From TrEMBL:
The chain crosses the membrane at residues 39-62. It is a multi-pass membrane protein. The lineage of its organism: Eukaryota, Metazoa, Chordata, Craniata, Vertebrata. One of its GO terms (cellular component) is plasma membrane. It is found in: Cell membrane. InterPro entries: Formyl_rcpt-rel. GO terms for biological process: inflammatory response; phospholipase C-activating G protein-coupled receptor signaling pathway; positive regulation of cytosolic calcium ion concentration. GO terms for molecular function: complement receptor activity; G protein-coupled receptor activity. SUPFAM superfamilies: Family A G protein-coupled receptor-like. It comes from Champsocephalus esox. This is Uncharacterized protein. Keywords: Cell membrane, Disulfide bond, G-protein coupled receptor, Glycoprotein, Membrane, Receptor, Transducer, Transmembrane, Transmembrane helix.
Length: 81
């Protein structure tokens, strides 16, 4: 009988990857308190604070110091989003 699919030689009817289960509990991350991790967190916080301050400055300038035009209104709405 002809079949419309390819029969593979190494095919098994049961998926053996489903039998591999991960033990419950904490994952063994031994380097979670490394100095590189602390540096990356500090850099991320610094970049976030600088970005928030810069965006706030642009919103303040476009909102209160520039004339209200279509372009500044569009720019302000894009900055808030």
């Amino acid at each position: 009988m002809s079949v419309d699919y390819i029969e593979y030689d190494d095919y098994t009817p049961y998926n053996e990857t489903e039998n591999n289960t991960i033990k419950t509990g904490l994952l063994p991350f031994s380097s979670c308190h490394s100095s590189l991790n602390h540096v990356l967190v500090a850099v991320n916080i610094i970049i976030s604070v600088i970005g928030l301050g810069g965006n706030s400055l642009v919103i303040w300038i476009c909102g209160w110091k520039m004339k209200r035009t279509v372009t500044t209104t569009w720019s302000k709405s894009m900055e808030i989003i």
